[in-house]
Design a protein that fits this description.
Jelly Rolls, 25 strands, 7-stranded antiparallel sheet, 4% helix, 1 helix, 303 residues
Length: 303
């Protein structure tokens, strides 16, 4: 087994999207090869309804898939295909935009006015850019949760982990998407397929990730699996950790425990032409998509 080195840690940055939704962006609109096949990750945590109630009115997507995971509050959605729904706390939605879709997402706070969720964009390969759009809405009760003897909890949202399979299927990026809680003081190692790009997003508590190399900013050293490795200490306030290659990630939870998302996917390794909500392979394809938006032919007829 080989430990994945920490290539980079960074805090998610404030951003405003839609009709004035205040959120934090961990990555996006930068180098699309950095976390290929993933393009963007937003954390929309907010306890001020005036900062999110205007939502994300009608807008287009083409060439990608979006994964929305709601922790608190709800998100009402509708689209140009006639689909409507309401994602509640714990629910997830995977939208394959494919050839093109118009949709809107309107977040609603819980009884205390709080809203929290995540949205991840996954690229589609050229062979599936113009596939037929579809939705997969999954209730939180249908997401399997594994509780280990030491109290570690893992929700398997997508992919296979510790003998459980997530309820979302048929995804081009073939990702693994886990919501992990590690109890106070517990050290835990999680397998990650060697051939996938991987990142963690720490959003609650604090802890330290073991590192097989010695990047800048190491605070202390511990012995893990019989070898000296470095430990990078992290707070849980919206921290992204980008990993190098290897087949496992080791974390030591702090005194309050640690909760994070662990996401990995097979890289597509194709050219990316990207503007706003549309991601294609060439600039010509991108120009065509926006021309179709202007002339009203963006939405393809159903087969």
């Amino acid at each position: 087994m080989s430990l994945r080195p920490t290539l980079e840690t960074r805090l998610a940055q404030p951003a405003i999207e839609g009709a004035g939704v205040h959120l934090h962006r961990a990555f996006g609109f930068q180098d699309p090869s950095e976390l290929d096949p993933f393009l963007l990750f937003d954390d929309f945590r907010n306890d001020r309804p005036e900062d999110f109630k205007q939502g994300f009115p009608w807008h287009p997507h083409r060439g990608i898939e979006t994964i929305t995971y709601v922790l608190e509050g709800s998100v009402e959605h509708s689209d140009s295909l006639g689909n409507t729904g309401n994602l509640q706390s714990g629910d997830i939605q995977w939208m394959t935009a494919g050839s093109g879709i118009l949709h809107q997402e309107m977040p609603q706070g819980n009884t205390n006015g709080q809203m929290h969720g995540f949205q991840l964009w996954a690229n589609l390969p050229s062979s599936l850019k113009m596939t037929e759009p579809r939705y997969q809405d999954v209730k939180g009760a249908d997401i399997p949760e594994i509780i280990d003897d030491d109290g570690t909890r893992v929700k398997v949202i997508i992919g296979n982990f510790w003998g459980k399979s997530g309820p979302v299927d048929g995804i081009a990026a073939d990702p693994q998407y886990l919501d992990i809680y590690v109890p106070p003081g517990v050290k835990k190692t999680f397998p990650v397929d060697t051939y996938r790009r991987a990142f963690a997003y720490v959003f609650d508590g604090a802890g330290a990730f073991a590192d097989a190399s010695a990047p800048t900013g190491i605070l202390l050293e511990k012995e893990v699996a019989g070898q000296e490795v470095n430990i990078r200490d992290l707070s849980g306030n919206r921290t992204l950790i980008r990993f190098g290659t290897g087949d496992e990630v080791t974390v030591q939870a702090g005194p309050e425990g640690l909760r994070f998302l662990l996401v990995s996917g097979a890289p597509i390794q194709e050219p990316v032409a990207w503007h706003g909500p549309i991601v294609m392979n060439t600039q010509e394809e991108l120009r065509k998509a926006f021309a179709e938006l202007r002339n009203g032919t963006f939405i393809q007829p159903a087969h």
